[in-house]
Amino acid sequence: MQDRTTQEKTLRTLSALVRAGLVSADAAPALAPVASRYAIAVTPHVAGLIDRADPADPIAAQYIPSPEEAVTLPDEHPDPIGDDAKSPVLGIVHRYPDRVLLKPLLACPVYCRFCFRRERVGPEGGVLTASQLETAFAYIRARPAIREAILTGGDPLMLSPRRLGAILAALDSIAHLETLRIHTRVPVAEPGLVTPALVASLATAKPLWLMVHVNHARELAPEAVAALDQIRAAGVPILSQTVLLAGVNDSEAALEALFRALIAARVKPAYLHHLDPAPGTARFRVPLARGRALMRALRGRVPGHALPVYVLDIPGGRGKVPVAESHAVLADGAWVITAPDGSRHRLADAQESG
């Protein structure tokens, strides 16, 4: 991982959060069990986005520990989407025939309180050794059906430009891979990491896509947009993924503002994720019916290219599926189409009239 001044200033303890005014001294003792189990990290950039006068601040909710995290509900699981069961070698998750996840490290610039890998990620990093990386590359090389490799973790942009560039070069050399992808929080959580050297390390012969994790419009601060601009200027197209979170973005206004801000930053919203049931995350849950209603309300309210696909990872590693309401329903042998204004219309398609 990179050695840098900004990392040294990251808030990593309850006492640091208290000194920064992000946790009250009275509240700190109740957070001790949470801090002993799950990693804490709030970068100076993120700390600067938090409104300390707002007890329900949506940025703080994502990163500041809560006593509720100490409570694990019966349906919560430390590996809610079955990464372990789909991991044939260390660092690889192979859930779909045509793509794999490669996790070269388990460190992040910030630690989200709702993360589905929160039992694994932490400041120790879990960086794969050279031999472990080679085993992962060999697994991919031996399987021509794999057409995409996705760097995730942890956050791949926490790696030094030299190490990240070497990993991308190794993947770039595998003939049957068609595309590469990076999942990251860095541009919005620690935009100062996006340096010319880091951007240069993203140069690949194969198409490379960046998927940035953004949950609230305020995360797209000028520094974050500037970091994304650098990456895009290097020819890397950028998509986004968002987690639907109670108290953060579970309203029409919050989602509309986010999706419009992403498009304004030239980022295509790709996925809105239904929350994975990781331990201690119940406070963030939004009922599926509510999520579907939100997506229905946004249809026709924002441009089509600003709407992501609302998806759910089926627990146990059974895959990701779209879960938004369908606007086409087969009823009594006919297709009934619901318009954005709620009106319904029968479709006379070729099969019906033929």
Notes on the protein architecture:
The protein has 354 residues and is α/β, with parallel strands linked by helices. It folds into two domains: 70-323, Alpha-Beta Barrel (TIM Barrel), CATH 3.20.20; 327-354, no CATH class. It is built from 13 helices and twelve strands. The protein has helices at residues 5-8, 14-19, 28-37, 44-49, 58-63, 130-141, 161-172, 186-189, 196-200, 222-233, 252-264, 288-298, 350-353, and strands at 92-96, 99-102, 148-151, 179-184, 208-213, 238-243, 268-273, 309-313, 320-322, 328-331, 334-338, 344-347. The strands form two sheets. The protein has a nine-stranded mixed beta sheet with strand order 1-2-3-4-5-6-7-8-9. Strand 3, helix 7 and strand 4 (179-184) form a beta-alpha-beta unit. The radius of gyration is 21 Å and the shape is globular.
Secondary-structure blueprint of this entry?
Elements: H1 5-8, H2 14-19, H3 28-37, H4 44-49, H5 58-63, E1 92-96, E2 99-102, H6 130-141, E3 148-151, H7 161-172, E4 179-184, H8 186-189, H9 196-200, E5 208-213, H10 222-233, E6 238-243, H11 252-264, E7 268-273, H12 288-298, E8 309-313, E9 320-322, E10 328-331, E11 334-338, E12 344-347, H13 350-353
Parallel strand pairs: 2-3, 3-4, 4-5, 5-6, 6-7, 7-8
Antiparallel strand pairs: 1-2, 8-9, 10-11, 11-12
